[in-house]
């Protein structure tokens, strides 16, 4: 049986990260300028409490998934919250535990510094991901608004 490996992103993962993140953005019908790719990659390796961080998932030695997450302050807790910003698994490995393993890795990492609230959003039409999310987390019922 193949084993999923989850580890922090490394500088040597740039090509795999770019491929996976591009596929994630394509799934959401989004394109970002080259400058955003560059600054995001740089920020993933910049020290700082509130800088984004990332994990990559491999299966049989191939990069098949990624997640970005970040910590932020909250007026409701002494500890930070953890926002799981991006989560993606290659379509050919969906249902094999990659997404769940990436979520668990973020939860475990947040727990190491006492952060209990890990949360994320998805689009209401993302039924495949929502099946996983409904299994591993509770749905809060909140509706997102933004001022873009």
UniProtKB/TrEMBL annotation:
<keyword id="KW-0012">Acyltransferase</keyword>
<protein>
    <submittedName>
        <fullName>GNAT family N-acetyltransferase</fullName>
    </submittedName>
</protein>
<dbReference type="GO" id="GO:0008080">
    <property type="term" value="F:N-acetyltransferase activity"/>
</dbReference>
<dbReference type="InterPro" id="IPR016181">
    <property type="entry name" value="Acyl_CoA_acyltransferase"/>
</dbReference>
<dbReference type="InterPro" id="IPR000182">
    <property type="entry name" value="GNAT_dom"/>
</dbReference>
<keyword id="KW-0808">Transferase</keyword>
<dbReference type="Pfam" id="PF00583">
    <property type="entry name" value="Acetyltransf_1"/>
</dbReference>
<feature type="domain" description="N-acetyltransferase">
    <location>
        <begin position="4"/>
        <end position="148"/>
    </location>
</feature>
<dbReference type="InterPro" id="IPR051016">
    <property type="entry name" value="Diverse_Substrate_AcTransf"/>
</dbReference>
